[in-house]
Design a protein that fits this description.
2 copies of one chain form a homodimer.
Chain A: H1 7-22, H2 26-42, H3 49-64, H4 71-93, H5 98-109, H6 122-129, E1 136-137, H7 139-148, E2 152-155, H8 161-172, E3 176-180, H9 191-196, E4 204-207, H10 222-230, E5 233-237, H11 238-245, E6 252-257, H12 261-267, E7 274-278
Parallel strand pairs in A: 1-7, 2-3, 2-5, 3-4, 5-6
Antiparallel strand pairs in A: 6-7
Helix pairs in contact in A: 1-2, 1-3, 2-3, 4-5, 4-8, 5-6, 5-8
């Protein structure tokens, strides 16, 4: 999906939030936010929101010299999610359909996001996700796709959420390739956080090739593009990946929480809804 | 007060809202929002928020060629407020302290604002304002200041609110100079809307000298500066004027609704609170 103009104020807010992570000096923060505004106003038309985020965070990195302002937050999110693991494993094992329960829990993990809305309660979301009705629920199709899949590409989103992805990957019983961001971008999962989340032992980890909060296919790595073509099931986590991949004619299931009005509108669901959606069925008219 | 970095996303949102008023073509809207972002990122440090708004709306006007995108909305706000007049006059006449009731109703009028939050319910606000506790209530001081005043300067804010200002001016029983914006800026009151609000007959109307959503003293007209110096009571309506005048050592009372978190924080009140505040007592430490 192309960027929506309603995303513009949000890009500025994100730049401000990020700058404040590594500076308490308002003059420095101002310099970064002003540069982000100039960059935002100078970008060529078109592109998905993660392409714009990528440019803005490049600007922030260049001016600040800080490569990974979210490093501490990412570590803490991973620790927080790891503490939930034993309870969640028992929940999955005790449920009528453990694979479905694991899928739903991985959707709840998508609540961890310092880009869109830093105000979340992981434990509360996890509790509600197992029983709560989803805004779009293509889980029967998802379960069937897992059953017949031979190669699965799993496109990760945020650090911490990656720990809950592990619970789903453990239940897939198929060879899984887990794609991470090439280098730090907001609180997204990179190779480092994937390892800290315990994913190294259960999936092949590859980089998608760019530092954007969503996979930009035009900038994707060869390894990613190979996995993308070879997979007969692609699990895409989160809004950023949805924004980049929603119109791709591939066997994708989008697992996410609709955290902003633009995405909720595009999907035709309510703000805050959980989603397991097959690609194609989520497509709205262009411009929406 | 100097602009707060939290205002930056809001400036971009305001540019978007304004552009959408006169264009349904997303490419044109995008061009305007992008130009507003570049301008915002290029402004020198410092200045109150209305000084930045002034620059951004100049950019919007220059690119769009539209001088007064809010003209229709202003007219409708005035009509809506005029319909409430008979009922409000009865309310004021029937109250124990008509001057106080009129002051409170003029504060409720400040809810009309397409700059900060276009989602308001004038009738509901007016109903609640007469009895509801204020976030800051310096009304005893205000009533005393009116009693002893010889010359009153009344600095208007939004069109429509201006109709409710009339009810207060009618109760002041003093010579009142009513200051309006020099030319259209958002939905603020200009000479034209002051006339449509029925203010011509009961106050001397002057221009403050600039098209900013707040009085910028450094750019004020001679007529305004004379009235500013001669007045022994200055009634300042709304957030924009507060942002420009909050630190001035003059006998000012600020009548407004705290419609954004930055202003609420600066005043030390809750978001949505109504305020009648004497200048000086509202001053927070610099940087807040």
């Amino acid at each position: 999906m192309k960027v929506h103009l309603d995303c513009y104020p949000c890009f500025v807010r994100q730049a401000l939030t990020t700058a404040r992570l590594f500076s308490t000096d308002e003059a420095s923060v101002r310099r970064i936010v002003a540069a982000a505004c100039r960059k935002l106003g100078s970008l060529p038309e078109g592109g998905a929101p993660p392409e714009i985020s990528r440019e803005i965070y490049r600007t922030i990195r260049r001016i600040s010299g800080v490569a990974d302002p979210y490093r501490d937050l990412k570590r803490r999110s991973i620790e927080q999610a790891r503490r939930l693991l034993p309870g969640l494993r028992r929940l999955i094992e005790g449920s009528a359909n453990p694979l479905l329960a694991a899928a739903r829990i991985s959707v709840a993990g998508n609540v961890i996001d310092f880009g869109v809305d830093a105000d979340f309660d992981l434990e509360k979301e996890v509790e509600s996700v197992v029983s709560r009705p989803f805004g779009i629920d293509d889980s029967p199709g998802f379960l069937e796709a897992v059953r017949t899949a031979r190669k699965i590409l799993y496109v990760g989103d945020n650090a911490g959420e990656s720990v809950l992805d592990r619970l789903l990957i453990e239940r897939l019983n198929r060879p899984v390739t887990y794609a991470v961001r090439e280098s730090p971008i907001i609180n997204d999962v990179t190779r480092e956080e994937a390892r800290e989340s315990g994913l190294s032992g259960i999936a092949r980890i590859i980089s998608c090739g760019t530092a954007a909060p969503g996979v930009i296919l035009a900038r994707a790595s060869k390894a990613f593009l190979r996995a993308w073509k070879e997979a007969d099931l692609i699990i895409s986590k989160g809004q950023g990946n949805y924004e980049c991949l929603s119109e791709e004619p591939r066997p994708i299931f989008f697992l996410l929480k609709a955290k902003c009005t633009v995405i909720a509108g595009h999907l035709g669901v309510r703000l805050g809804d959980f989603i397991i959606a097959r690609a194609g069925r989520t497509r709205n008219p262009p411009g929406k």
